[in-house]
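Here's my example:
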Amino acid sequence: MTTTDIAAGLIALAFGSGFGAAALIWRCCPLRVFGTGATGTIERFVRREVMVQAVRGAVPRPVQVREAVIAFTTRAGETVRIQASVHGTGAKAPGDSVPIRYRVARPNEAEIETPSRPFRAALFLVVLSIALLLAAAVFAS
């Protein structure tokens, strides 16, 4: 096996992990990358019933969840209200601020910006791709 073969293999791995990162970002968190940021304010909390299935194949049962009604203002000056879970944001009461990400073309498609494991995994894949490309350049020279 020559250094050229090793470099070609590293380049293939780099492109594979780069495409994996792009797919992961596209599927899990497009607003995190392509969305616009705003600060929302919790107006009130509402209860909503959702169906939960404890294990696969089990009969779903209703569970009450607490969601926040959050208002934010877009860059265009439009006030938008969304309903979302604030679990993990540290917000606990009406009047608390939460970071929001939204699409400029469709601001009703908004979400609370929280740390995301898939996003961190995608960033790791990007860094790995760059490291593999650098290693391939070293082997090719």
The chain has two domains: 1-29+116-141, 34-114. The domain at 34-114 is CATH 2.40.50 (OB fold (Dihydrolipoamide Acetyltransferase, E2P)).
